[in-house]
């Protein structure tokens, strides 16, 4: 074995030992109810179904457990990444060098109507379940969220939107834990929110929120509205695995239309393909790699720039990396 190869093997062994030691140190502080693993595959936890593993992965069972994880990461200089329902992101094939935290434990999925017409929800509650439980309770105003394949926490971080509505349209307060492990409750007015972005949740994790819907309505009327939205999505969005819309809409324009008019529907790299249903979706035809998806993103951007003179900017997250390093 040559010297370079020997050094690579030794470096890999050292990195493995460092991550093993971090995981062991954290495990000693946690209850058995909290899941903690090494090299947890992330692809099955995402809607795109691509990518590698998390060096360390955790599903905390309580606020105290989450705080312990965050404080340990700060102490050891380990970067923290939050994983919701795995939509709106692409995991690199090499995985994520950090601590990936998912609020998948049932403790984070609460739905509690409270006095005054508001609802307190946990960050791990699926948006589909939020809408369903609200409909049963006769609470209108959340229907636009029904078809988004995410959780409350992810919707808050990205100010998720669909059908003309946005997550922060229905927010009163957000409960969060900073990456230093400190708890805060912020009113909507104190937060900096815009298109697909919430500044405060780039250095903290939302653990819950108080939501105030538009009104109270008949459950059957709410269900009819949800069904109408679902039908519209079914007709306009692909069914294959995807990460949702890949690019942001340029001001006054549509990314999907620009891609379509550039002749890119059906463009393919490996098993990654520009959807023939909606051009702003890249779908996984079965065995796509993250590298396939990234190459297709680059190809689409280059073609649209050449044909339309527009630089499309990614909307989805490149998990654990920066887009500027791969585009």
CATH class (first level) name of the largest domain: Alpha Beta
As a whole number of angstroms, the C-alpha radius of gyration is: 21 Å
Beta strand %: 25-35%
Instruction: Tell how many strands the DSSP assignment holds.
Output: 21
Percentage of residues in helical conformation = 25-40%
Shape: globular
**Uncertain ranges:** none
Largest sheet geometry: 5 strands, antiparallel
Q: Which sequence of SSEs, written as H and E, runs from N to C?
A: HEEHEEEEEHEHEEEEEEEEHEHEEEHE
Number of domains: 3
Q: For the record, give the distance between the C-alpha atoms at the N and C termini, rounded to a whole number.
A: 35 Å
Q: Taking strands numbered 1, 2, ... along the chain, how are they ordered across the largest sheet?
A: 6-7-15-11-12
Q: Can you name the CATH architecture of the largest domain?
A: 2-Layer Sandwich
Number of helical stretches of at least 4 residues: 7
Mean pLDDT: 88
Q: Do you know the CATH topology of the largest domain?
A: Uridine Diphospho-n-acetylenolpyruvylglucosamine Reductase, domain 3
Structural category: alpha+beta
Task: Note down, in words, how this protein is organized.
The protein is 31% helix and 26% strand. It has 327 residues and is α+β, with helices and mostly antiparallel strands. It has three domains: 3-106, Uridine Diphospho-n-acetylenolpyruvylglucosamine Reductase, domain 2 (2-Layer Sandwich), CATH 3.30.43; 109-220, Uridine Diphospho-n-acetylenolpyruvylglucosamine Reductase, domain 3, CATH 3.30.465.10; 238-325, UDP-N-acetylenolpyruvoylglucosamine reductase, C-terminal domain (Uridine Diphospho-n-acetylenolpyruvylglucosamine Reductase, domain 1, Alpha-Beta Complex). The strands form seven sheets. The chain has a five-stranded antiparallel β-sheet. A four-stranded mixed β-sheet has the order 1-2-5-3, with helices on one face. The protein has a four-stranded antiparallel β-sheet with strand order 17-20-19-18. Helix 3 (127-136) runs antiparallel to helix 5. The model has no long low-confidence stretch (mean pLDDT 88).
